[in-house]
Amino acid sequence: MRHTIQFQKKEGSLFDQILADREKAGGTYGTCGGRGACGKCRVRFLSDAPLPSFADRKFLTPQELREGYRLACMAKPYTDCEVEICFAPEREIRIVTESELSAGAERDLRDAGEQGAGGERDLRNAGNERSVQKADEGGERDCFCAVDLGTTTVVMQLIGRRDGRALSTYAFQNPQRAYGIDVLARIAAAESGKAQALRQMLLTELENGLKKLEETGKPQEIIFSGNTTMGHLLLGYPVSGLGKAPFTPYHIQTSYFDLSGHPAVFLPGISAFVGADIVSGVYACGMAEKEELSLFIDLGTNGEMAVGNRDGILCTATAAGSAFEGGVSAQVMGTDMTALAADMLKSGVMDETGLLAEPWFAEGWRRGELTITQQDIRNLQMAKAAICAGASLLLERARAWDRIAHVYLAGGFGYYLDVEKAVAIGLIPRTLCGICAAVGNTSLAGAVRYGRSQKAAREEALDRIVRISRPINLAQQPEFEARYIASMAFAEME
Ligand code: FES
């Protein structure tokens, strides 16, 4: 059943009033952060429809306009009125709550005198609802809460300090998605006066999560990992420096604060683009303790990468859009999109340039309920090119092409990836495919390792990672563009 709200002109914009009422409205709020660019925030005025905006005319048919449909973010109602919410249902997003550090990585951590980041965390959620899962009660109450604060999803886990077991998990989609799917949209929203709203909607959900987790045990501390923008929005730091050159964070060191009466810490990051989630991932994989070189890749709306060993780490990040988090128009998970692209390439539906053959160019290619459009292919192609160009540049700078011993694929994308298909479309070179390990949610795993380690040792370990890491801004690298173009082809990498 569709939900209606009573718009009150004196209460501010229609879009903001709908967001405030989002618990009841359900559905997705668009992906452009209220800029009239995605066409997803449809509403229908049951009376007094305002004149259509330019964006309304772009996304809605004349018939729909006559029936009172408008885009909520662009609508400027003249008066109080009743509005029906018609947003599309939120697509399902997989939330990876477990990490799968290889036996080798766990052993390395034990050899280093620590307890490892793993433990029996065997929860793997799918879905778009808040979800709570409890592991068997172990009677353990010496626990802490590890949080992976992602741009798309948030995972909170109550961890037993002694054995690293996940006692309870609370996972949800980041409610800030209402203001856009990526960090740039969130920064723009914060800059336009919505910083407090963004912060509050997240705090509300975190507090809900804490209450649920506390049914199992009271955490002695809360450890947050996440990208630099998520950290700034949570902590109420100004984000003005994050969205424009020279991309200067307000605060990048470890932050200590209080959350609902619990001591909390947000782990340190390296730069505006390479945040605590990557420091945490590097820590979880033990990269900065190994002599051999490793390549770490975390694919989401941003692709973050690091190459190095205990002597030094080069890291960078590149925008990957929504392709690796799921093709928005096709409702396909990013990993499935990679597999489908490989199949389309093999069967001749698509050529190496990413062009669909006729009749699929015009109509899209159907498999079951799904239709893959030319735009879906382009999104994947641009994301793939950005990742390949970034990773190859890092590997070359580190003179590491033929010396890489481990490739860690972090995040939901890496977790579900079919490596052979990724090789077929040129996302991963064949030479590296034998050493690839899908390691799951390393941002969370790093927070777990931090929580289980001695105070002095954990602080020294993260300080060291930050100290030996050097971020590279791809936009300032003259060869990046040529590499990007060269990486567009859907073909095995040389
Ligand atoms: S058009 Fe994207 S949120 Fe309104």
Distance separating the two termini: 53 Å
Strand coverage percent: 15-25%
Per the CATH scheme, the topology name of the largest domain is Nucleotidyltransferase, domain 5
Counting H and I runs of at least 4 residues, what is the number of helices? Answer: 17
Total beta strand runs: 21
Sheet having the most strands:
7 strands, mixed
Molecular structure report:
It is a single chain. The protein has 494 residues and is α+β, with helices and mostly antiparallel strands. The protein has three domains: 3-85, Ubiquitin-like (UB roll) (Roll); 94-286, Domain of unknown function (DUF4445) (Nucleotidyltransferase, domain 5), CATH 3.30.420; 287-442 and 473-486, 2-Layer Sandwich (Nucleotidyltransferase, domain 5), CATH 3.30.420. Helix content is 34%, strand content 23%. It contains 17 helices and 21 strands. The chain has helices at residues 14-20, 22-25, 54-59, 62-66, 103-111, 183-213, 228-235, 276-285, 334-347, 360-363, 374-397, 411-416, 419-424, 430-433, 442-452, 455-468, 480-486, and strands at 3-7, 42-45, 69-71, 81-85, 94-96, 124-126, 131-134, 143-149, 153-160, 166-173, 219-226, 255-259, 262-266, 293-299, 302-309, 312-319, 365-367, 370-372, 404-410, 436-440, 469-471. The strands form five sheets. The protein has a seven-stranded mixed sheet with strand order 7-10-9-8-11-13-12, sandwiched between helices. A six-stranded mixed sheet has the order 20-19-14-15-16-21, with helices on both faces. A four-stranded antiparallel sheet has the order 1-4-2-3. Helix 8 packs across helix 15 (442-452), helix 8 (276-285) packs across helix 16 (455-468) and helix 11 (374-397) crosses helix 17 (480-486). The chain is globular. The N and C termini lie far apart (53 Å). Residues 115-129 have low confidence and may be disordered. It binds FE2/S2 (inorganic) cluster (FES). FE2/S2 (inorganic) cluster binds next to loops.
